[in-house]
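Tutorial sheet, problem 5. The four components below are modelled jointly, 478 residues in total.
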Amino acid sequence: MPWGIRLAALDRSLISRLPLFQGLTPDEQSEILRSARSSRYPKDSAIFEQETEAHSFFVLVAGHIRVVRTTPDGQQVIARYISEGEIFGVAAALGRTTYPASAIAAVDCVVLAWANALWPELTRRFPAFGATTYKTVGTRLQETQTRVVEMSTEQVEQRVAHALLRLANQTGRKTASGIEIDFPISRQDIAEMTGTTLHTVSRLLSKWEDNGIIVSGRQKVTVKDAHRLVVLAENRDKG
Amino acid sequence: MPWGIRLAALDRSLISRLPLFQGLTPDEQSEILRSARSSRYPKDSAIFEQETEAHSFFVLVAGHIRVVRTTPDGQQVIARYISEGEIFGVAAALGRTTYPASAIAAVDCVVLAWANALWPELTRRFPAFGATTYKTVGTRLQETQTRVVEMSTEQVEQRVAHALLRLANQTGRKTASGIEIDFPISRQDIAEMTGTTLHTVSRLLSKWEDNGIIVSGRQKVTVKDAHRLVVLAENRDKG
DNA sequence: CGGACAATTTGCGCTGGCGCAAACTCGGGA
DNA sequence: TCCCGAGTTTGCGCCAGCGCAAATTGTCCG
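Model answer (structure tokens):
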């Protein structure tokens, strides 16, 4: 449950730097913001749940969100992570009435939400807003297809290496010892991103740590030698 | 290569029955059609190729199209099949400048094409056209994610069963002996849809044929007992 | 500061499905 | 009609990665 609060005065600076709102004038940004509702979600709470009626779409202002699909028999697959500034839960824009997955706060999050009913008007009045959203959707479709290709053609080791590299690129934070993934991520999470088991992920990370490619701890991974990880990821065993 | 022909008079009846053009008046349909170019593509020819500049988007008027992604080392994965009436190659609508996959005619095809430059105007003047397209995109994103989930959680046998059921539902033709997939599809094709090898697919189909669940021939599969195939597809081994 | 739980590591045995190879068969073109 | 090549079938051996189980290590909370 969010400890939902309608912030007294949403600051335009919250969103003005986001790609989604580029190409809009300050006045337009303020206006869009006025129709938004802001909420905080504590770590591990759900912003929305799979199969439930889609009432809103969202922008992540701060934090990290895990998008999870659960199978009828309870197995979970992580569809993607949402980073700061991204739009998500855009079921409305794609003509769906329910959310196809759940969105879970990986850390405490701040989120803006708009009622789906506002979507048509927003896109009509601010075409750039719709175009950017659809561009994001296009990117996600392509990324998802890339994942299908990886799962079809790569070994587990390559898939896990690819996943780590992607996380490091998208959400990595430079530290003294390397690029650290800046939200808590477990072996189980990585397994659910790559279609393997936490045991296999653990074995791989242990090996890589021995080789000095990464350092890792409890729910934490730091990539020390991205280059060697790339080599592993692209290893052409099965040509 | 298409033996491209600009048909003298495109008949509105070509498209009036398609969901994509529902909600448009006959006049509007005719007008949209006027800005289209029609081409025929013989079996196995490419409508467009992966990574090439996206110049147009398309509607399949007749035939079946295979959408294929090829990896740097030459392995192929079938992203989906396009059936009559579907829109495809909508890179423009999603802000991409190149096609993320190749589209290959699985049989002789008839295709309508519009220059990407027309997209903004078409969606502006015919909002229902854009909405339907984005709904299709949403469906495909969800289907692709479902495929990721299947590849993460199911055994090969279940995945192949699911793939056959999907093909039977989407493009099946009722015959005396069952539901026949009405375009040529090889064991290799099925393998590329499910992330396995043609050998494994062949073994599974042989077994199913022995069990009377399907009958199959060269580039041909007919589902005789869909119900038992569903049981195989949903088999909860790993619960 | 101590307990309890969650996350991680690691060993061991097994097997689903792949790689390789060879035989076979259908269908279409000369 | 015959031949050729693409598509298919099937046997065999192997191994990547899983399932199971148990030990170990952090971390948070009282």
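Marking note: The helical segments of chain A are 13-16, 26-34, 119-125, 127-153, 156-171, 187-194, 198-210, 226-234. Full credit if you identified this.
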